[in-house]
Amino acid sequence: MPSRLIEIFEDTKLVEKIRRRLPYLFQLAELESSRAGKIGMEVGSVRERIIVALLIYKFGEANVETEIPITEPEVDIKLFKEPVSIKTITGKNFGGVKLIWTVDAQKAKEFRESYYPHCDILLVQISWNDTGGFYYIPLATQKRLFDKIGRENYIKLPKPGTNPRGVEITKEALSGLVEDSMSKRIVINWQKTKIEFNPYKRWVDLWRED
């Protein structure tokens, strides 16, 4: 059965809304996660929540399961009971997308030996003052490419002695996935808008309430 995710990319009104709103919302996420001009690691979680909120907006809260056990690496939500992974990257090239977060070299090796694609991917490519995209990469596409190029070319292990915090999908594999004819893309023009942002206002307002 084809994934319901494809409906996002066939809904012309929603596609326009994503093009218009996503840069603004992701800019807010960066402002919310910044201190002294530096963006913190937590920005990833805020971005993920923005995409989950989009799925709830489109498909309804009852069909988006967000309470996923930590034992399911890669799976961020379930949509109509089907697992979905949400990934975001910054920049024009497709490097640095994590399959699993771990600092343990042995765990990383074991992960590579046992890994096989098991869920659809929603990928957001952020490229400020440039074009990026919002992609749907079906599970079937991932399996086909994985079988074709093999795990060595699909999965990049952390370099020994470094601290990159995870096992990545190779740049070549990800480029192949997004360019596949079964994958879908919404082109996004990542322009920043002027936002008057005060990280404390919401909390101060809540303190003011009786």
From TrEMBL:
Gene3D superfamilies: 3.40.600.30
Entries under InterPro entries matching the protein: ThaI, ThaI_sf
Keyword Membrane included in the entry's annotation: no
Superkingdom as given in the UniProt entry: Archaea
Keyword list, A-Z: Endonuclease, Hydrolase, Nuclease
One Pfam entry name: ThaI
Gene Ontology molecular functions: endonuclease activity
Presence of the UniProt keyword Oxidoreductase in the record: no
Xref: CDD domains: ThaI-like
Protein name: Type II restriction endonuclease subunit R
